[in-house]
Design a protein that fits this description.
The structure is a homodimer.
Chain A: H1 4-13, H2 21-28, H3 32-44, E1 48-55, E2 64-71, H4 77-88, E3 93-99, E4 105-111, H5 114-127, E5 132-144
Antiparallel strand pairs in A: 2-4, 2-5, 3-4
Helix pairs in contact in A: 2-3
The first copy, chain A, binds a DNA duplex through residues 20-22, 30-37, 40.
Chain lengths: 162, 162
DNA sequence: GCTGAAACCTGGCTTTA
DNA sequence: TAAAGCCAGGTTTCAGC
């Protein structure tokens, strides 16, 4: 599926998607067209899911990140479906996981300040029945990246070099 | 700084950065050039920090997300500086927060499976002195977005419409 | 906000291993 | 025959006005 050259392309694109195809080709030792075709293929196959602009949270007035650990006694599919729907429509929720272990779900929520979190929290519990919620706040975001590690990809078989 | 039109631009670009400037202009009721100039300004001001390609974690063989809560007794700047440096160089760590409350730091780590997490964990504790680590695994990523909520932006004053 | 030049993307066709 | 390279036409970006 993905070979060494594809991986190099992905590495470049998930770091900076503004780099022209010709330049990417140059960096990996390929001319424009084959490089472009590889990118097309990676998009068709769904390896690349999209290209987005990233914003500075401070400039957007969302300085506070809260992690919300949720426990529930509702363990049926219908409840989860509804819960997921509610969460999907709340733009403050950046991430939402179903967890193993003590807590059932984990949210990462971005808001301007603690007051705004409180307002968010009230809106959340008004919309859905939750047994127990425990929130912890982040003081500082030391690292945040959308880049995934590419060293675990199962590489396509290639001809061995001479 | 940012007005209503800028906000619309940001909304579009953080959803899909492949849309041509002319099309963005059309959607917000602006011709190409002024729209382009606004985007330039948003980039210069650092509101837009970059454009990146997003990848499908499954296709990249990183199916497992682990949250790692770290407690330490080292509370000096030098230790944190070194810790941050170590983390920055580990591509499996997507996010890294300094927390308020019981746990000192929180990591979001992406790896192929539990075995790979174990290997990561050993590499981590070999590199840095940590008192206590508690890991919880996500079973499912129900929502993940890089989009920030734009409804909290302090909008620039505008002329009232006639 | 318009216009035009330069850069870039995109697909058909040719070449190479 | 599968993948790389060449080249031309159309689109997009971006600076002057």
């Amino acid at each position: 599926m993905v070979d060494r050259l594809d991986r190099k392309i992905l590495q470049i694109l998930q770091e900076d998607a503004t780099i022209p195809v010709a330049e990417i080709g140059r960096r990996i030792g390929l001319s424009t067209t084959p490089c472009w075709r590889r990118i097309q293929k990676l998009e068709e196959e769904g390896v690349i899911t999209g290209r987005v602009a990233l914003l500075d949270p401070k400039k957007i007035n969302t300085r506070v990140t809260a992690f919300v650990a949720i426990t529930t006694n509702q363990h049926n599919d219908e409840w989860l479906r509804r819960f997921a729907e509610v969460i999907r429509e709340m733009p403050e929720v950046a991430e939402f996981y179903r967890m193993a272990g003590q807590v059932d779900y984990l949210l990462r929520v971005v808001v301007p300040d603690i007051e705004a979190y409180d307002a968010f929290y009230k809106r959340l519990i008004a919309k859905i029945d939750i047994s127990d919620v425990s929130t912890t706040f982040a003081m500082e975001q030391i690292k945040y990246t959308t880049m995934l590690p590419l060293n675990y990809i199962a590489l396509d078989k290639e001809k061995a070099p001479a």
